[in-house]
Amino acid sequence: MQDTKDMTLKEGIRIYFPKEELGRMVNQEGSRRQERFCAEKHLPMFAPKNGVCDFCHRPIYFGDDKHPAYSLEYAASHLITGCRNCGHSFVD
Ligand SMILES: [Zn+2]
Q: Residue 48 Cα, ligand 1 centroid: separation in angstroms?
C-alpha cells in the first residue's frame, strides 16, 4: 500500500461516475461540439451524430489506452472526416 489517498479518490470517482456513463457523457458532448463547429463554419458534418464509428463501433470522442479518440477541444475546432481509432472514413 503506497498511496491510500489516491486509491480512495479513484474509488470515489468510480462510484459517482461509472466509466461507461462518463464515457457516454463525454462522447455526447464531443458530438455536440462537432455539430456546433460544423454549423458555425457552414460545413457538412461527416461524423455520425450518435458519436459512434459505424465501422469499429467505438466512441469517436472518448477513447482509452488502446482506442484513440478525438478530444473535446479537437471536436470543437476541426472538421472530423474519419475515425481516429480504425481510420474509417466518414465521407460519402
Ligand atoms: Zn472506427
A: 11
